[in-house]
Write a structure and sequence with these properties.
- By secondary structure, the protein is mainly alpha-helical.
- The protein contains 16 helices and no strands.
- Helices cover 76% and strands 0% of the residues.
Length: 309
C-alpha cells in the first residue's frame, strides 16, 4: 500500500521545469489578444440587449455563481455608467490582459482578468459561443492557478525571489495532461458509438454547414473517399490519445497527428482560434519533454558520429 501511495504521489507531483508554463502563457496571450480583436466590431452588438439578458437568465438556472457581464453592469449602474461603456471597458480589460500574458507582465493578474472577462463574454453571449470559448476558459483557469511567473516572462526579470517548487510545476502540468486525456477519450468514444464518423457522413455535413462551408461543395464531392478515411482516423486518434500519448515511443507521432488534425480543421472550416487553442494546450501539456528527448537523441547521435570519425 505504501508503494502504491508513493507511485501515485510520484505520478501526480513529478519534478518539472517551467517551459510548459511559458508555452501556455504565451499561447493563451496570443489567443486572448486575437479573440478580442476578432470580436471588436461585434462586441457590443453580441453582448448587449435582450439576447444577453436571456443568456444570463439561463446561466442563472445552472448557478448564481457563474461570472457574467451582468455583474459589472449592475455595479456600474449604481454610479450611472451606461451599458455600452461598461461592455466596451470589459473588452479593453480582456485585450489588456491578453497583451499582459503575451509578454508576461503582471502575469497572475492578467491571467485572472483574462479568465474572468472571457468567461463573462462566453456566458453572456452563450447563444453565439462554441467550443473555443470552453477551451479558452479551461486553459486560462489552469494558467491563473499555476505557479506564475515563468522564467521567460517580464515578471521573472523584475522579481527578486525566483525560487520554484518543481513538484508544483509538475502537478499543474499533470492536471492539464489528464484533463486532455479525458476530453479526447470521451470525444472519440462518442464518435465511435455513431455511424456518421465511420462512413464519413459527419465530416461531409460539417464541411457544408454554414458558416463553416468555406470549401466549394463541388470540390468536396471529389473527396468522398477521403471523408471515410478521415472519419476513422479521427475516431482512432482521439480514443487512442490517453493510451499512446504517454509512451515516449508513440508520443511524437500522436502529438503531431493531433496537431495536424486541428490544423486541418482550421483550414477546411475556418476555425482558426479553435485550432490554435487546442494546439497550445497539447504542446504545453506534452511538448516540452518531447522536445528535450529529441534534443538528447540528436546530441547522442552527433557524439557517436564524432567518435566514429
Amino acid at each position: 500500500m505504501q508503494v502504491l501511495r508513493e507511485r501515485l504521489l510520484g505520478f501526480l507531483f513529478p519534478d518539472g521545469a517551467d517551459q510548459w508554463l511559458a508555452i501556455l502563457r504565451v499561447g493563451l496571450g496570443f489567443q486572448v489578444t486575437f479573440y478580442s480583436l476578432s470580436l471588436r466590431n461585434d462586441w457590443n452588438y453580441l453582448l448587449s440587449g435582450t439576447a444577453r439578458k436571456l443568456a444570463e437568465a439561463l446561466v442563472s438556472l445552472e448557478s448564481h455563481f457563474i461570472p457574467r457581464l451582468g455583474w459589472p453592469l449592475a455595479l456600474a449602474a449604481q454610479v450611472g455608467l451606461p451599458e455600452e461603456t461598461v461592455i466596451f471597458l470589459a473588452w479593453v480589460c480582456l485585450l489588456t490582459a491578453g497583451c499582459g500574458l503575451l509578454v508576461g507582465f503582471a502575469s497572475r493578474v492578467s491571467a485572472i482578468l483574462a479568465w474572468f472577462f472571457q468567461l463573462c463574454a462566453a456566458k453572456s453571449g452563450g447563444f453565439v459561443s462554441y467550443g473555443v470559448d470552453n477551451f479558452m476558459t479551461i486553459g486560462l483557469f489552469y494558467l491563473m492557478l499555476s505557479p506564475l511567473p515563468d522564467r521567460y516572462s517580464v515578471d521573472w526579470r523584475l522579481r527578486k525571489s525566483r525560487s520554484r517548487d518543481p513538484q508544483l510545476l509538475g502537478f499543474w502540468r499533470r492536471v492539464i495532461q489528464l484533463h486532455l486525456c479525458v476530453i479526447y477519450f470521451f470525444s472519440g468514444l462518442t464518435k465511435c458509438l455513431g455511424s456518421g464518423w465511420w462512413d464519413g457522413s459527419n465530416i461531409w455535413r460539417a464541411l457544408i454547414r454554414p458558416p463553416f462551408n468555406i470549401i466549394d461543395p463541388e470540390i468536396l464531392v471529389g473527396w468522398k473517399y477521403f471523408f471515410l478515411v478521415a472519419g476513422i482516423f479521427t475516431c482512432l486518434l482521439e480514443i487512442g490519445y490517453p493510451f499512446l500519448i504517454w509512451n515516449n515511443k508513440t508520443r511524437r507521432i500522436w502529438l503531431i497527428s493531433i496537431c495536424a488534425m486541428h490544423v486541418g480543421i482550421s483550414l477546411t472550416m475556418g476555425m482558426y482560434l479553435f485550432a490554435f487553442i487546442m494546439i497550445v494546450l497539447n504542446v504545453a501539456a506534452f511538448g516540452p519533454g518531447l522536445i528535450r528527448t529529441e534534443l538528447r537523441m540528436y546530441q547522442l547521435g552527433t557524439a557517436r558520429r564524432g567518435a566514429t570519425n
